[in-house]
Amino acid sequence: MSDKDLEARHLETLDRDLGRFANLESAAAYVSRPLVAPGIAFVFIILAGLAAALLLGQSGEALIVVTAAVFGAYMALNIGANDVANNMGPAVGANALSMGGAIAIAAVFESAGALIAGGDVVSTVAKGIVAPEALDTPIAFIWAMMAALLASALWVNLATWIGAPVSTTHAVVGGVMGAGIAAAGFGAVNWGQMGAIAASWVISPVLGGIVATGFLWFIKSRIIYRDDKIAAARTWVPVLVGIMAGTFAAYLVMKGLKQLIDVSMGTALLLGVVIGLGCWVLMIPVTRRQSEGLENRNKSVKVLFGIPLVVSAALLSFAHGANDVANAVGPLAAIVQTVQTGSIDGEVAIPLWVMLIGAFGISVGLCLFGPKLIRMVGSQITKLNPMRAYCVALSAAITVIVASWLGLPVSSTHIAVGAIFGVGFFREWDAERRLKQSRMTIPETEQLTPDERRRRKLVRRMHVLTIAAAWVVTVPASAILSAILFLILQQIPT
């Protein structure tokens, strides 16, 4: 065999070996990819614990706070993974935002809302579910808050894994209730408040669905079904954007900025009216310029709703960060103050380092695990476009304002998802109505069969059942888990 043949065989063997190494590297990368996000989350949780340890030094009490900080960071990650989908899902599903753009906007505005307008004080027993006197010793209170925090985080984590958007507030409430029952019996629970929370399972999605359906019907009747869609859009899009601007102004003052600006409901609504009228006037020439040269079809009209939809998603994220950060850091802050003062009275201030854990935890959880629920909310329940997503976003703000005015307990998660259900079911009804009208002109042989019409349902029933079941189970599941954890924690010697 010549030297040339030997060299060729050697190169062929080398190519095969390099190919094996490449396949091995690809396999290793494929296996390790799912572990990257949990690994980063684990590092964040450890850093939160280390930060608490550095701030508090070494003592038996510090170990309790460090453990609580770890649980609080874990809960914040889960809030970011689950709750934020309600704000960004519609915009992503409507293709008004890319997934990367949605995550970037949400991370910035969630953190800003938490740090700028997050609650300065939070009741030591969430939502008045358990009477403070029922937890008669500081250590019992600490274990109860610890159990509630971990139980709610575990439940939200499970819900995210199965693809069900749930209310983190309800998870925390269930956790507090379960720990309270384990500590002092069923008599310690405020069952009237629990009844109101149970009622919100129905009130929230129904109100959200009704409001979103009403706006979608208005858009279809006043713009989509008109002969000259562009002329109709020039008239009504500024009005709709003005309504959105005014609503979100009132919503942010009432919910997102309530710790910075203490205003009454009437003042907030008046401010919303003024800002809404101003935006309506400003949008008239803007809409006219945007609509120049557009074709007279539905796709052209959708373009005019893109920017308002992005702005609404950002504002919803700001308000969410301001409100729901307390679900992660409220129990943690209560534990910190109880450890430092030995008192379980009244209200507790949230230290800055505790708020930072909540704010950054929500953003990190969103970036690592948020896309799954964002896709679920945005596209897997029903197909959204900018107009339908606009109705969902506006419904979320209007329903919270109306519920606050009426004194009804509602969940922003349930409202947003209920609005998506409402939009989807309205589309089904409207499609069926138009189909019946068209039967008069279509030969019977060309009409759709009942089986084909059922196949073309616009809302995926499987997701409806999964999400509804998760909503109903959230409070009792968190309560049971919390009670078990409380009984385990009580066995720890102090």
From TrEMBL:
Q: Which Pfam families match?
A: PHO4
Entry's transmembrane regions? 35-56, 62-80, 92-119, 139-159, 171-191, 197-219, 231-254, 260-282, 303-322, 350-369, 389-406, 412-429, 464-489
How does this protein sit in the membrane? Multi-pass membrane protein
User: Do the record's keywords include Transmembrane helix?
Assistant: yes
Presence of keyword Transmembrane helix: yes
Where is the protein situated, by its record's location annotation? Membrane
Keywords from the UniProt entry: Membrane, Phosphate transport, Plasmid, Transmembrane, Transmembrane helix, Transport
Q: Which family does it belong to?
A: Belongs to the inorganic phosphate transporter (PiT) (TC 2.A.20) family.
Name of the protein? Phosphate transporter
